[in-house]
């Protein structure tokens, strides 16, 4: 009994320590995200003080008078930098939480939404809207208005996921290995379609596509941000509710079923919510790589595998990373602007190499 009591006490202490660490990571990640939003609004060719920023924001809800702030600064805050900061926060949160869900789903720290065609399916659909939106797809897109691009990109992501899901479904169960292989094939097919549409594009569309495929928050205006924000918000909140079943899945599908988890329903829900968030994010800012890979793994290294902390931590840290990356993209070569995907890849690729080298040294690959 004394030995069992000691073991129980040690396990309880470890659990308390992990909870404290998880809460600390959430607080720190949230603080970084808020700091990133402040910097995103105040820093740029036109320097804006944080006081002016808060005065303008509070004036929107009737809590302050913005007469002391110049009309130029007010316009920049309200119409340029704030929608860009909000979009960056939501895109980072959507990609981070989707990456955490995929890593939990596959039980693989090197997984990300791109593995099951979510990103490339959305990219193919968005490229089709850009190239064919003024001609072949015009009758379909016109009634959708501002919702057209994010909605069509979401449908492209969902279509890719649905195809891969059906291919990997055997006797009512999703075979993860088959899903990964089907994802490789779907990605290749989507890239082929993107290449063909790029060939059809005119000079103006080609310029848009080139910049769009490298990722950018530069086109952020409220008319584009708000529709995509609705889809990304549903995705982020929905994925947070999967924390408990994701924790159960860490034990294996059989044990998760024993604990009352409907494994197949969780898989479908995770795939749908991932497609929703990543498709909308891809539509409004293009393809931004490595956030869904790097951020969840980094959070997991700090908090452990508990998805109660991994999912929200990945959302907040993903938002912070996108905001600071966008700041670098805007200021590094001012007055020009680097593509956002270039900055995130410069951060993510070395980290990915570090993961591979670390896993190799630990014998993961034999």
Explain this structure:
The chain is mainly α and 366 residues long. 76% of the residues lie in helices and 1% in strands. It has a two-stranded antiparallel ribbon. Strand 1 and strand 2 (173-174) form a beta hairpin. Helix 4 runs parallel beside helix 7. The longest helix is centred in the N-terminal third of the chain and has 41 residues, at 2-42. It is globular. The mean pLDDT is 84.
Secondary-structure topology with pairs:
Layout: H1 2-42, H2 50-59, H3 71-106, H4 118-132, H5 138-141, H6 148-168, E1 169-170, E2 173-174, H7 176-200, H8 203-213, H9 222-240, H10 243-249, H11 253-258, H12 263-285, H13 291-303, H14 307-331, H15 340-361
Antiparallel strand pairs: 1-2
Q: What are the salient characteristics of this protein?
A:
two-stranded antiparallel sheet; mainly alpha; globular; 366 residues
Given the helix and strand composition, which structural class is it? mainly alpha
Shape: globular
Radius of gyration, Cα only, in angstroms? Answer: 22 Å
The share of residues in helices is over 70%
Order of helices and strands: HHHHHHEEHHHHHHHHH
Please provide the count of β strands.
2
Instruction: Give a short account of the largest sheet.
Output: 2 strands, antiparallel
Give the CA-CA distance, first to last residue.
40 Å
């Amino acid at each position: 009994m004394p030995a069992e009591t000691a073991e129980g006490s040690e396990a309880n202490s470890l659990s308390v320590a992990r909870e404290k660490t998880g809460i600390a990571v959430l607080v720190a990640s949230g603080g970084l995200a808020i700091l990133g939003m402040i910097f995103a609004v105040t820093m740029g060719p036109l320097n804006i003080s944080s006081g002016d920023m808060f005065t303008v924001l509070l004036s929107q809800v009737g809590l302050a008078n913005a007469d002391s702030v110049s009309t130029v600064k007010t316009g920049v805050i309200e119409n340029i930098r704030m929608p860009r900061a909000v979009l960056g926060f939501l895109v980072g949160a959507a990609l981070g939480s989707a990456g955490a869900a995929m890593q939990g789903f596959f039980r693989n720290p090197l997984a990300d939404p791109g593995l099951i065609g979510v990103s490339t399916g959305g990219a193919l659909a968005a490229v089709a809207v850009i190239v064919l939106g003024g001609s072949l797809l015009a009758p379909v897109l016109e009634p959708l208005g501002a919702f057209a691009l994010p909605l069509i990109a979401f449908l492209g992501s969902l279509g890719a996921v649905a195809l891969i899901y059906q291919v990997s479904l055997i006797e009512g169960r999703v075979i993860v290995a088959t899903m990964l292989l089907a994802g490789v094939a779907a990605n290749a097919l989507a890239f082929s379609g993107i290449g063909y549409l790029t060939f059809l594009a005119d000079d103006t569309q080609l310029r848009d596509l080139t910049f769009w495929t490298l990722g950018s928050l530069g086109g952020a205006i409220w008319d584009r941000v708000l529709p995509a924000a609705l889809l990304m918000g549903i995705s982020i909140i929905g994925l947070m509710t999967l924390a408990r079943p994701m924790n159960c899945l860490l034990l294996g599908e059989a044990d998760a079923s024993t604990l009352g988890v409907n494994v197949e329903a969780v898989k479908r829900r995770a795939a749908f919510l991932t497609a929703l968030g990543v498709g909308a994010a891809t539509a409004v800012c293009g393809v931004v790589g490595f956030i869904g890979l790097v951020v969840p793994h980094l959070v997991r290294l700090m908090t452990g595998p508990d998805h109660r902390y991994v999912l929200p931590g990945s959302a907040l840290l993903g938002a912070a990373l996108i905001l600071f990356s966008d700041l670098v993209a805007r200021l590094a070569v001012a007055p020009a602007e680097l593509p956002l995907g270039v900055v995130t890849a410069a951060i993510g690729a070395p980290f990915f190499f570090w993961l591979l080298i670390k896993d190799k040294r630990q014998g993961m690959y034999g």
